[in-house]
Design goal:
By secondary structure, the protein is mainly beta. It has seven helices and 29 strands. It has three domains: 163 residues, Glucose Oxidase, domain 1, CATH 3.50.30; 68 residues, OB fold (Dihydrolipoamide Acetyltransferase, E2P), CATH 2.40.50; 56 residues, SH3 type barrels. Strand 13 and strand 14 form a beta hairpin. The longest helix has 10 residues.
């Protein structure tokens, strides 16, 4: 199994392209323009608009075919809440149907005699979140060339965000008390150590923190925000990210779910970048398989993000859920066999003076010398 290589967990001065895909954007920047994290690059919708189906035929007491002739506004028109959209005269009385919401008349279903009204989604300014050069503006997507220091995580909960990095943790295995999160966190991305409690997350949101970096989060810390410990709720939270997250800040789990300490070399790497702007971005925004913390650089001279060969002597991160950490390869990848004959790729990793066989899928080049 020679020649196996993977992207490193940590990369210095990596050149990458950040792609921001927006909903119905009005872009405020163009190609070759330089942007800062706080630069407003577009005004865009915050989501899809609410839709309402009005049973015109039922409310007027006519057939679906006749209901079409009762419409008093054309499809595509914008109406206000309470505005008449259909009417029918019967004798001396006129029966009217009004729209319950402000929006646009989207379509009329001739089979049911129903009219669909779609509300316009709220629009707001969109920040670049990174420092770099706009590469392209096309349709609903903005591409920005960025050079920076990159740390891969496991899960990003909540919105993508950016702010100056504030380091409050002093150890990789410590949970900070709630009172540590104060005005220093406003507008910042906070390196909080091993984990945070649900009370700490609320406090961070209350003081206006942009985001938080932790080793992991326990299920008990998430319960108040997802309505219980249901596996389906957890799945939706991981899959939908921002859509299912009620807080205003982003939370990047560097190790995964649980009370998991940060890897010491990664913690030190981030500590050294205290005060610099860091962005928490989803995997799809940077074209990777994992979300990242990206520390923007002022340099335009970066290196392509390239795979690192997995060979004896390579420092690696081991993602064993119960015991993540760092070590060093003591073998190239090889095929191993379980007791029942199942074959799987593996490597030998030395950690804390002990050499263990580890499935290859759980090993990532560290990108640093621990």
């Amino acid at each position: 199994m020679n020649g196996v290589a993977r992207l490193p967990l940590v990369a210095v001065d990596a050149e990458c392209e950040v792609r921001r895909r927006l909903i119905e954007p009005e872009f405020q920047v163009g190609a070759t323009q330089l942007v800062e994290p706080e630069t407003v690059v577009a005004v865009a919708a915050t989501g899809t608009g609410q839709s309402v189906r009005i049973a015109v035929a039922v409310e007027l007491g006519v057939s679906p075919q006749e209901a079409t002739r009762c419409l008093v506004r054309a499809l595509g028109d914008r109406v206000e809440a309470g505005e008449v959209v259909a009417a029918r005269r019967r004798g001396l009385r006129t029966f009217q149907v009004t729209s319950p919401i402000a929006g646009r008349l989207e379509r009329f279903d001739e089979e049911t005699g129903s009219l669909v009204v779609v509300a316009e989604a709220p629009r707001q300014p969109v920040r670049a979140l990174v420092a770099g050069e706009v590469r392209a503006v096309q349709d609903d997507t903005l591409a920005i060339r960025v050079v920076g220091d990159l740390v891969q995580g496991t899960v990003l909960l909540g919105p993508e965000c950016a702010g100056p990095l504030v380091v409050l943790a002093d150890r990789v295995d410590r949970e900070l008390p709630v009172e540590e999160f104060d005005e220093r966190c406003r507008g910042a991305v906070v390196l909080a150590g091993m984990t945070v409690s649900s009370a700490a997350l609320r406090r961070l949101a209350d003081v206006g923190a942009a985001g938080v970096l932790v080793g992991g989060l326990s299920l008990s810390a998430l319960e108040p925000f997802i309505g219980g410990r249901s596996g389906e709720r957890m799945r939706q939270l991981v899959l939908t990210g921002e859509a299912a997250w009620p807080l205003s800040l982003g939370v990047l789990l560097l190790e995964g779910f649980g009370r998991l300490p940060l890897a010491e070399p990664v913690f030190s790497f981030l500590q050294e970048r205290s005060g610099r702007w860091v962005s928490l971005l989803r995997a799809e925004s940077v074209g990777l398989e994992q979300p990242v913390a990206l520390v923007s650089s002022r340099s335009f001279q970066g290196r392509p993000l390239e795979p690192v060969p997995l060979e004896a002597g390579t420092p690696v991160h081991v993602g064993i859920p119960a015991r993540p950490g760092v070590g060093r390869l003591r073998s190239a990848p090889f095929r191993s066999r379980t007791f029942d004959g199942f074959m799987f790729p593996a490597v030998l990793v030395e950690r804390d003076g002990q050499v263990d066989q580890v499935p290859l899928d759980l090993v990532t080049p560290l990108g640093l010398n621990p």
